[in-house]
C-alpha cells in the first residue's frame, strides 16, 4: 500500500539546496485528492494589527523544511510511509481585501476537506485559523489545543472591527466552530490590555494555562490535562510560533518575552499523540522580522512534529477501518 | 517674525542620538494651526500588493532625519527660518480596514489643510497619496510631479479591487483630483504587465518620462519640461522612494533595478524650485526590508530637500501677500 | 485620584507602529514634577571599554516598549492606574567628555529626585549608574540588587583611569553611595582577569551569587536571600542586560555565554516585590550589536517588570502615608 | 501558435509572495522537450576559491524573479508570447566531488540541448560555465560575450589544480570550446596577481575591455565592438554578477570595487540584440553574502533581460525557418 | 617555570578591539615546538553537504575569542600560567580538492603532535576531524567524547562518495583510529534518514545519548557515564557547535532544533576534567550563516572551556612526570 | 634590492580566508624600522559625536584587505616590489580618555616617522588625523588633499569641547600643522549647521570643492586643480570614507546622501600620482553600521589605491637619491 505514497527527495542523494522548494521536499501536487494529509500554505496576514509579514511565511517555511528527513528520531514514526502526504501549494489569497481573503481561505480548505485529506497549514497570521475552522468544523464544533502567547479572544480593534489576529477564537466560538469546553490554551503570557482581558474566554469554558503554570508543572503534566480537555472528539491543533520565546523565534508579529524553548514545544507536540486531529496549523511566522531563517526553521520543524503525530493518527484510523 | 518659528534641536549641542525622535528634531505639536508646513506621518500600507512594511516608514524616517541640519548647502535655504515647520505626529490609521483607512487619512490631511498649513507627508504606501489628494485637491484638480518606478495607474487587482498602491492615480483622475495634462511621471521603468500598460495614462494626457529618456537628457532637461507641464497652478509632488535604485533604497515593496541615484534625485527635487506646491510626500519606505536604515535616510533627506523648496515657496508667497 | 494619571496609548485603538515613540507609549513631559515614577533615558556610553553603542539604547528601548500593555498578567498590577508615570525624555549628555558626562547625568537625575519622583532609567552603559547613585544616594548610602554577568568592581583601566563601565560600584562604595553589606550581585560569570578579581568586592561585604549557584538554587531561593540582604532600607535595582544570555540579548558590549533566560530574569524581578526601591535602571543595551531589536525588547520588558514592582511600592507607600 | 506557450502567474491576480517559487513564476516542467528556452538552475560552487555560497543562487534568484512581469518596457518584447519558456528545475549536482560535479552539469545541459532548447542558466559559480560550454559547444567552438570583473583565464590554484572558478575560460579554450578571437570580456578590473596576468588570454585573441575603457566609451560604443567580435556565429553569453559594483550586488564571492551600475549592465545586455545566442548564464550570485536579496534581484533581472534578447532571437530564427 | 609561558594581551591595558586578531589574544607563533597546547585553525569545509561556510570559522572564532580573559571563574584554572599555549595559525588547506585537503590537514596536525603539543583546533566542518584523528591516533586507537546533534557515522553521499561531514567517524572506525567502545556521542537529535540510521554505530559499540535522555538525566549524570566510557586511555574531544540549539548557535551548516543551551554545554565540558585528552576541536562554526558573531562567540568560549580542562591535564601530567 | 621586501601571501596558493588577518596579507612586524611604508591601525573613535564604531575599523579593513592582490590593473604598479611595506599593528589607544588617546596616537605615529617610514593609517574617526598630523607635520606645515562629505573645521561641541571628529582641521590649522593655502577639500555636501559654516575655513585659504562642482567638472578637472593646490611640498592625504555615497559605504558615523561612487573615488586617488605624500589615512569606517563588509572593503581598496601611489612616490624618491 505504502508503495504509492509520495516520498520526499533524499538529501543524501540530492543536496538540500537543490531543486524546487516544497514542504519537506515532497512533490507539489495540484489537488488534495488521494492524500491523507495536505501540506498547504496560507500566505495571508490581513488580520495583523502590528507588524505584517506572515504573508511570506509559507515560502520561507518551505525553504527551511528542506532540513527535514524521513523519520522521527524519538517516536520512530516514518510519516511518508504510513500516510500519503504532499504539498498542495498555497491557497489563493487577497492581500488587500479582508472579507474576500477570509472567503478564499475557507473555500481552499473546504476543497482539501472535501477531498478527504487533513489540512496541515503554514500561515499566515492567526486570523487565518478562523476560515480554516469554518471549513474544518463546518458540520460540528471541534476541540482545540492552542499553543500561543496570546489568547486571541479579544473582541474589537480600531473602532468596531471584528476580524483581526487578536480575535479569531472569539469569533469561532460565536460561530459555533469551537466547543470552548474542549479548548485549552497553553503558554499565554505577557502584559495584557486589562486585568479582565481573559474573563470572556474563561467564562466560555476555555482552559488557559499560563506560562508560569507550565514552568511549575512541566510538559508532561500540562499535556496530560490538555489531552483530557480535548478528549476523544475531533480536535484542531493550532501552533502560534510566538508561543516560543522570541530569542528562538524572533520572526513574528507580536513577540513576548519568556516563552517556551523549542525543546519544550517539541515535547508538548509529541504528547498530542492519540488525539483525533482533524487539522492543524503553524502560524505567525513573519520572515521580514526573522533572523537567519531561525523562525522559519522552528516553524518547519514544528510542522514535521505535527505531521508525525497526524500520520500516526491516520495510520491508526486506517487500521480501525480495516478491522 | 521668524523669531517665533519652531527650531530643530542643534546637533552640536545635543547629540543626534539623544531626545525623542521627531521629524528633523523639530518640536512635536498637537495641531497644524500656526504652521506653514506640517510634517506628518501616515503609517499605513493597506494598499500594498506584495511586501508590506511601509506602515513602519514614518518612525524610521523620523529616526534618520536626526541627521538633517539647519541649512541647505547648495541653495543656502534655511527652511526653519523662513517658514514655521513642526512635526504634527502621525495620522490615525486602521491597518485592517482599507476603506476606513482611506477615510482617516483624508480627514487627517483635511485638518492640516484647514489649518492653513501645507502637508509634507511621510508614508505609507502609495495608496496613501489618494486620500491626501482628496483633501488637498478637494476644491479643484491639481497638477503633479511624480517620481516613481511605476506609473501606478492600473485599474483592478485580485479580482475587482479598485484600491491598491498600483492604482491611486487612475482613481485620482477619475475623481477629478488631478489634471492629467499637468501630470508628469519621471523614472518609470521595469518589466510591465503588458505592452499597453501605460496607454490609459497617456491617453489621459499624462507625460511619462521613462528612465531611459532621463539617462539621455539628464536632470536639467527633464525638469525643465516637468516644470513646464506642472505650470503655475497648484501642484502636488509625490516621491516614491522606489524611483531610486534598489541598491540605494532597498527598503521598499516593489524594487526595480536601474533607478535614479540619490544624487540625480536630489538634483531633480532642487529643480522644483518655483512651482506652487500645495502638498508633497515621500512614500513606500518599508523598514522591514531596509538595510541599515539606508532607505529611511534617503527618505528623510528627500523630505529635507522637498522642505527647502516648500519653505522658499512659502516665503515667496508671503512676500507676494505683503506687497 | 488615579483619574489624573497619565495613560499609555491603547494599541487596540492606535496601532503600535503609529505615533511618536515614547517609553511604553506614555506622554512625553518636560519635567518630573507631579510624577511618582519618571521614565528617563541616559544615552551615554562614555565608560565603555570595548564595544560602544549603549548611547543608542534609549531610542530603541522606546521603540520596542510599544509592545507593552497596561496590566501585568501575573501580578495583576496596573502600573499606570496606581502611580503617575511618564516619559521625561533623555538626560543631557556629552559623548566626548567623560567628566562632563558624569556631571550632566548626576544633575539630571537630581532634578528628578528633587521633583519627588523615582527614576527608572534606560541606559547607557553601566558607568551611568554611578552618577545616578550620586543623585539618588546623596543623603545616605543605599542597598543594591544588581543583576549582571560582571561585578563591575574593578579599579583602573588603560593606565590610571578610574571611571569605566567596569568600575562603577568600586567608586560608589568608595564614595559612600552604597552600603556594601546591603549589596547583592546575581548572575556573575565568565572568564575573569585573575582568580582574585572579586576579592575586593567580597571584602567590602558584597554578596556575589555566581550563575552556577543560581542554577543550583533557582530564582525563588536566590531572591529570598537577595531580599534579606537588601532589607528594609532604601534600595537601588540595577539590571545589566548582559546578565541575560547573549542568545536572548545579543546587543550588548560584553556578552558572556551561559546567562539567565529571560524567563528566569522576569521571575527574579517579580520577586523584588516588597523592597523599598528608590531608583532602578536597565543598562548596556547596545543597539548597533542587536539583532532584530531582540535586546531592546528584553530591555523594554524588564523595564515594564521593574515598573510594576515600583508602582506597587509607590501605592503601598501612599497607603502608609494616608494612614 | 503562441497559445500553447507556458505563461507566468500574473501578479495582479495572485500576489508575488504566493505559490511555489519558480523562475519568473513559470510552470516547473520535468524536461526541456518542447521548450524554446529552458530556465535551469545549477546550484554548485565546487570551484570557488574564497567565499562559497553560489550553490544557493538558483533558489534565491527564483524567489526574487517573482518580481518580473510579462513585457519589457523598452523593447516591448513579450518573451512568453514569442517563445516557449519554462523552469526545468535544477541540475543534479555533487557538492563534494568536483569532477563528478562537472560531469553532472555537462550531462544535464546536454539533455536540454538535445531537446532543442536553449539553456538560460542560473549558477552556481563561474566554473559551472565550463561544463555548460562542453555541452553547448560540443560540436564547434562558440564565441562569447563575457561580463565580469575577472578574466577567469588563470591556470592553476593551490598547487596543481586546474579547475576553479578562476580558470574556466583557459580550460574552455584549451578544450576547443571557445573561439578566442570571438571572445570579448567586458568590465575587467581590480588588483591582479601580476602585471602579466592577462597576457595568455590576450595572446589567444581574447579582447579585454577594462572598466576604465568602458567608462570612457560608454555602453553603446563598447557593445558595438562586442557585437562585431562575436559576429554572426553561435555565441554564448555569460554574466558574472560581480561585473556589477558590490554596492549593487554584494552577494558574490569575489567582490571588486568600481563595477558597472545595474543601469549600465541592463543597457549592455539589451544591446546583445541580434546575436545568435546559443546559451547564456548568470553566475556567482552567493546568497549567504547577499543583503536583502539585492544581488539575487539583480541576477533575476539580468536573466529577464537576457531572456528578452533570447526570445526575440528565437522568434527571428523561427521566422527564418518558416520563410 | 611559568614565567616563560606565552601570555594573552590584557584587556584592561589594551582594548579588545585593538591589535591583530589571534586566538584568545595570544602570540602568533610559527611552530608548535615548545608549546604544551597549540591553538590551530582549520579553515576548510570540503566535506559539507549543505550550507558551506565553516572555512571562515577560524577567523571569526579568533575575533570573538578576544572576549576571553585569563582565569576560569568556576574552576579557578589559569590556563596560561600552567601550560604554554599559543596560536600556531591556520593549517594549509585546499578548498577545491577534497583528497588534497584531507592530506594537508593530516600533515599539519602531525607536525603539532611531533612537536609534543596537544592540538586544540577550530574547524572547519566535521570532516576535518578525520585527518586530525589520523595524526593524533596514528599509533593506537583513541576514545572520543563527541558532542553533536548528529552521529556523523553515515556511509556514502551523492552516489559513492565516502568522505563528507556526515561520515567522518564511520571512516575513523574503519581505519582503526577510534576504539568505538570508548566513544560516546551526546546530544544526538533531529529527524533521521531512516529508523535504522544509527544501527551501524551502535553495533560497533558506540554509546549514543540522545538529547531526550540528556534532558531526563542532566549533565552530571550523563558526564559521569561519558567519563566512564572514555576511561583512562587517550581520548579525543570533538565539539560540533550544532549540538547547541540553533537559537544560540545559528551559524552552522545543519541546524537542528532542540539542542543544548550553552549553560548545559559549558557544564558538560567542565566535567571532562580528569580525562587524558590528546586533542580536541570545535567544529562547524559557519560565519556566513551566523548572527552577530553569536556562534563564533559560543565557539570561542567552548574553546576556552576545553583549554582550561586541557591545561589542567597538562599540569597534572607534568606533575606526574616530575614525581 | 626588492628581494628583501615583504611580500603578501598569494591567494592562488593560500586561500584568502586562511591565515592571520593582516593588512593586505602582509607580514605583521613589531616596528617600522626598515620599512618604506607602514600600514598601521588606529582603532579609536574618541571624537565621535554621533554613531561610534570606527574603533573597530582596522580589524575589519584588515579582513577585507585579504581581497587585494599584488599589482594595480591600471597603473601596473606593484607596490610590494618597489617599496618595503608591512603591517605594524595597531597603535596603543585609550577608549575612555580623549586627551590620553590623542597623546598615544601622536606618539605611535612619531615612532613610525622616526623610523623613516611613511604611515598609511586605517582609522579610527577623523579626529585621529589630528595627532597623526602632529607627528607628521611636527617640523613644518604640510598641504593636504582631503576627501570628505564634511569640512571638519567646526570649532566647539557640547559646550566648550574643542576636540571632536568635526573639528580636527580647525585645530590643525591653529596649531600650524597645515598650510591652509595648500589644503583642498573635495566632495563636501549635505545639510549644514548654518549658511556660514565654512566661512572660517575659506577665510584661512582652504579650497572647498563641493560635490556639485565635482559633478560638473569631473575627476580629471578637479584633481588637476587639487594637485596644483597641494603643489610640490609635503602633502598629507586623508580619505574619509563618508565622501563615498552611503549606499556604497553605509558603515560610517555621519552618512550623507549623494556622495562619490567608488569608481569616482578610485579615479581621483589614482590622480594623486606625482605628489610628495608624507602620510595618508582612510578614516571613519565604522563596522557596527556596515553591511556585509561593504564599507570595510571600500576602505581596504582605497588603502590599496593610496598604497600604489605612495609606493611609486617612494620609488621615485629613491631614484632621485641614487642619482
UniProtKB/TrEMBL annotation, chains A, B, C, D, E, F:
It is an enzyme of class 3 (hydrolase). GO terms for molecular function: agmatinase activity. It comes from the Bacteria. SUPFAM superfamilies: Arginase/deacetylase. CDD domains: Agmatinase_PAH (cd11592). Its EC number is 3.5.3.11. Keywords: Hydrolase, Metal-binding. Signal peptide: none annotated. This is Agmatinase.
Amino acid at each position: 500500500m505504502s508503495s504509492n505514497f509520495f516520498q520526499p527527495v533524499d538529501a543524501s542523494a540530492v543536496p538540500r539546496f537543490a531543486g524546487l522548494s516544497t514542504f519537506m521536499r515532497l512533490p507539489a501536487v495540484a489537488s488534495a485528492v488521494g492524500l491523507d494529509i495536505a501540506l498547504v500554505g496560507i500566505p495571508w496576514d490581513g488580520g495583523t494589527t502590528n507588524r505584517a509579514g506572515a504573508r511570506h511565511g509559507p515560502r520561507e517555511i518551505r525553504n527551511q523544511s528542506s532540513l527535514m528527513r524521513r523519520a522521527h528520531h524519538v517516536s520512530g514514526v516514518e510519516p511518508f510511509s504510513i500516510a500519503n502526504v504532499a504539498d498542495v501549494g498555497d491557497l489563493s489569497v487577497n492581500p488587500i481585501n479582508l472579507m474576500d481573503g477570509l472567503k478564499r481561505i475557507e473555500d481552499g480548505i473546504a476543497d482539501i476537506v472535501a477531498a478527504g485529506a487533513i489540512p496541515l497549514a503554514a500561515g499566515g497570521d492567526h486570523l487565518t485559523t478562523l476560515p480554516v475552522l469554518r471549513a474544518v468544523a463546518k458540520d460540528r464544533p471541534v476541540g482545540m489545543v492552542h499553543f500561543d502567547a496570546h489568547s486571541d479572544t479579544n473582541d474589537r480593534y480600531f473602532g468596531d472591527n471584528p476580524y483581526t489576529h487578536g480575535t479569531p477564537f472569539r469569533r469561532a466560538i460565536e460561530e459555533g466552530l469551537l466547543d470552548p469546553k474542549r479548548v485549552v490554551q497553553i503558554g499565554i503570557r505577557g502584559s495584557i490590555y486589562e486585568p479582565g482581558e481573559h474573563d470572556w474566554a474563561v467564562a466560555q469554558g476555555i482552559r488557559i494555562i499560563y506560562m508560569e503554570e507550565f514552568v511549575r508543572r512541566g510538559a508532561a503534566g500540562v499535556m496530560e490535562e490538555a489531552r483530557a480537555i480535548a478528549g476523544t472528539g475531533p480536535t484542531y491543533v493550532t501552533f502560534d510560533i510566538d508561543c516560543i520565546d522570541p530569542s528562538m523565534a524572533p520572526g513574528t508579529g507580536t513577540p513576548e518575552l519568556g516563552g517556551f524553548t523549542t525543546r519544550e514545544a517539541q515535547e508538548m507536540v509529541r504528547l498530542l499523540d492519540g488525539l483525533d486531529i482533524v487539522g492543524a496549523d503553524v502560524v505567525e511566522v513573519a520572515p521580514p522580522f526573522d533572523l537567519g531563517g531561525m523562525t522559519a526553521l522552528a516553524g518547519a520543524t514544528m510542522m514535521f512534529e505535527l505531521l508525525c503525530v497526524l500520520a500516526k493518527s491516520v495510520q491508526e484510523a486506517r487500521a480501525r477501518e480495516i478491522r
